Amino acid sequence: MTRLLIAVIVAAFVSACGPAAPERAPADLRVAFVSGLGDVVADSQGRTLYRFDLDSGSPPATNCAGACATLWPPAAAGAAPPTTDGIDGGLAGVLVRPDGVRQLTLGGWPLYRYVNDTAPGQVNGQGVDGTWFVIAPSGVKVTGTPADGGSGY
């Protein structure tokens, strides 16, 4: 009888605990601070995201393909709507590129990473060719110069 009572108490205790709440996945788009530039948009891994002046934000359209997309990989979007942290979710969207890749957008502008940004916080692509710029959480391009030459937050 005592064993049965102990078993019932243990079972009740274990079931009351339930499974732990799952950890929240990092947002697809989040805010990062860069000295000299202010708040900019980064991906879920903390990598700085850029916009290309030759693209279109309205309607959203990309003009970066082939060799361009090798140097400036599109910020890939998953099947679910993009998640944001510190950014108006209404500005976030997805563009389906001509090659079928789903690309994150902000304020309609397609977003890209830069291959020469090798770690979170780097902004080595800022101002490249006068057409590539980090993007602010509001969806507008940031035209300043990073205080530290582009090497970190």
TrEMBL record:
Keywords: Lipoprotein, Signal
GO term, biological process aspect, one: alkane catabolic process
Protein's UniProt keywords contain Transmembrane: no
Signal sequence, start to end: 1-20
Cross-referenced PANTHER family: BLL4220 PROTEIN (PTHR39335)
Protein name: Putative lipoprotein with Yx(FWY)xxD motif
Protein source organism: Amycolatopsis thermoflava
